[in-house]
Amino acid sequence: MCSQRTSSGCSKKTNKGKRKLMEVVAQLVKALDKFTDKADARLGELTHLMAHEHKLSSKEEAVYETVSGVDDLSLQQQLMASNMIVKNHDVLELFFTLPDEAKGEQVQYCDPIVDLGVLSSAT
């Protein structure tokens, strides 16, 4: 390897090598920057989905808690009504906007055996 005290030709080679190395490092930094931007965007999406799933899970628990408090429903009817409410996004959102006494009426209105097609599939 050339020392910098020798001829000017060696010094030019060293500078050229440093420039080339700096170019490679700059390209690597750009590639890593692009990668981290994409990873950050994807992690943001995943975080949003996980938060949404957690919110839905909390709502599902609240639905069953409310449905299980409705008188005159068997366990099977409670489970079927809960399932029907949770599976229909519009009904789920409506369910949580209703006052507590109306939620019980909503569950009774669902008539889970008919709405889930159990009777219609038997005929």
UniProtKB/TrEMBL annotation:
This is Uncharacterized protein.
